[in-house]
UniProtKB/TrEMBL annotation:
<protein>
    <submittedName>
        <fullName>Uncharacterized protein</fullName>
    </submittedName>
</protein>
Amino acid sequence: MSLDKKELELVIKAQLMYCTSTIHNPGYNASLPLCKPAFLKLCGINDYLLGTLQNHLHTEGLSERIHGNIGRIPMTDNRVFLNSEITFPLKQFLVQYSCIHGLPSPLRHRNDSNTFIYLPTDRTYTSVYKEYKDYYYTEHDESNQIISYYTFRRLWIEMMPYLKFQAPASDLCEICEGFKAKIKVAKSDADEHEKVQIQYENHQKLAKLERQHYNDNIEKSKNDLTIAH
């Protein structure tokens, strides 16, 4: 039967305790001296661990070895410890972000608690994280440490798994695509570029108003079945 690490160390220390050999020439027991390589081979350990066990036996006897870091809080400067002061504002940000930019899936039933909210295809985890950083530093001093992108993404998935990104080409608006094409063509003409850009922004504002109206109807329809989406 194989021994676990603690049991093996105790057995080896007991053998070292009752043999008369030196650190350079340990023995398997008091009557059977062995050369060091043979002892290491029999015990399945290396030279460093043997020396460590002999030193611990000399100072602590047969007591169990305890790693020096056990019970200590990791002293990592770049780690942000997660608590409600971090997770709650983050969720509030994502909820607000979904209200402004998101569009509920029209394929879900209005009473479905797992309704998905989709963000436009031009949004990504990275772009939303950048916006979150901007928001965070408007509320906190720049000396405060913000969570990393990977933590941001993990918490997003854990806290709001229903907030997703639309697949490419699933939210194409012909008007938006037309404006984007015009903006590219008008890059060489500053006046025309500005004119098209203003028209495009006005179109987006109207689309946001329609989205907000749709979201309001979603909320109202939960309590009033006469209201259609």
